[in-house]
């Protein structure tokens, strides 16, 4: 009970202080909620920007179509199509490629299937038939052939970078495969412009995220590190030229083993419970 004006003033101050405390607590709650909401938006935007950036990079590097759009001519020229062009190539892979097999093995060419000349000059790389005439690493080629023939649950793709400056490089790589590994048909040959991330390219092309069912066999550690950061599994091919910096500490095989040993080693990594 308020007896006089002084008591009323004290009660008023108490109420005012209580209101201030409640207001500050509410401000803290609102600030936390706002910060949480902002972080969610930032994370969502980063995921979206990553996908959009990958798609833009693919659009820029891949077909060179007018206005950044994919064209039949562009994809045919760069080796991305597989027969008819009745549907978007993304949809083709999403519908007919990755969904069919439990494990997807992506195999690099230069330095993995084919000999890579470490000291090759730019002039050599641009010469006609440079890629066509690269000698095969026969032990690796035979090991991949064994996987194709003996492991039907594994879908094997070639995933190889090409030089846009060399206008015949994709055709030459196709001719090389026709001779040394024809078991990999056109639908399983993917050529990525040099400088484009292989994992981003595959995720955009197939319209899905790489996971541990995606295995990359490559001689280049940067490709393998990017692949594993995307939750795929990497296997390094030691070819006698690479592996000098020691940056890769994951799974690896060497081309100097017999094909049967390489085959078993890769299968043990891909199919540990087999």
Q: Your description of this structure?
A:
The chain has two domains: 61 residues; 203 residues, Rossmann fold (3-Layer(aba) Sandwich), CATH 3.40.50.1000. About 21% of the residues have low confidence. Helix content is 48%, strand content 12%. A six-stranded parallel β-sheet has the order 3-2-1-4-5-6, sandwiched between helices. The radius of gyration is 28 Å and the shape is globular. It has nine helices and six strands. The longest helix is centred in the first third of the chain and has 57 residues. It starts with a helix and ends with a helix. By secondary structure, the protein is an alpha/beta fold.
Please give a handful of descriptors for the protein shown.
single chain; 2 domains; 274 residues; alpha/beta; 48% helix; 6 strands
CATH topology of the largest domain: Rossmann fold
Tell me roughly what share of residues is in helical segments: 40-55%
Cα gyration radius (Å) = 28 Å
Task: Please tell me what the overall shape is.
Answer: globular
Strand order of the largest sheet: 3-2-1-4-5-6
The oligomerization state is single chain
CATH superfamily of the largest domain: HAD superfamily/HAD-like
The domain tally reads: 2
The run of helices and strands is HHHEHHEHEHEHEEH
The number of helical elements comes to 9
Number of strands: 6
CATH architecture of the largest domain: 3-Layer(aba) Sandwich
How big a fraction of the residues is strand?
5-15%
- Which structural class best describes the helix and strand composition? alpha/beta
N/C terminus separation: 83 Å
Largest sheet: 6 strands, parallel
Q: What's the CATH first level of the largest domain?
A: Alpha Beta
Mean pLDDT, all residues: 76
């Amino acid at each position: 009970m308020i007896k006089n004006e002084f008591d009323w003033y004290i009660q008023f101050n108490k109420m005012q202080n209580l209101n201030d405390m409640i207001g500050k607590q509410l401000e803290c709650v609102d600030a936390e909620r706002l910060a949480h909401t902002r972080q969610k938006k930032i994370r969502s935007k980063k995921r979206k920007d990553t996908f959009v950036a990958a798609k833009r990079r693919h659009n820029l590097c891949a077909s060179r179509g007018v206005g950044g759009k994919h064209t039949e001519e562009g994809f045919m020229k760069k080796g991305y199509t597989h027969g008819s062009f009745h549907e978007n190539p993304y949809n083709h892979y999403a519908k007919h490629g990755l969904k069919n097999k439990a494990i997807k093995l992506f195999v690099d060419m230069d330095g993995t299937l084919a000999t890579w000349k470490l000291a090759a000059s730019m002039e050599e790389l641009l010469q006609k038939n440079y890629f066509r005439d690269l000698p095969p690493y026969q032990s690796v080629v035979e090991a991949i052939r064994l996987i194709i023939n003996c492991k039907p649950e594994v879908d094997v793709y070639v995933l190889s970078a090409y030089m846009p400056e060399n206008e015949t490089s994709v055709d030459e790589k196709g001719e090389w495969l026709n001779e040394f590994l024809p078991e990999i048909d056109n639908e399983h040959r993917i050529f990525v412009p040099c400088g484009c991330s292989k994992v981003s390219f595959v995720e955009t092309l197939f319209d899905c995220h790489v996971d541990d069912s995606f295995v990359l066999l490559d001689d280049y550690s940067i490709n393998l590190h990017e692949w594993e950061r995307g939750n795929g599994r990497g296997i390094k091919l030691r070819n006698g030229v690479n592996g000098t910096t020691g940056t890769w500490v994951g799974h690896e095989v060497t081309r100097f083993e017999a094909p049967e040993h390489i085959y078993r080693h890769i299968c043990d990594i891909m199919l540990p419970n087999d």
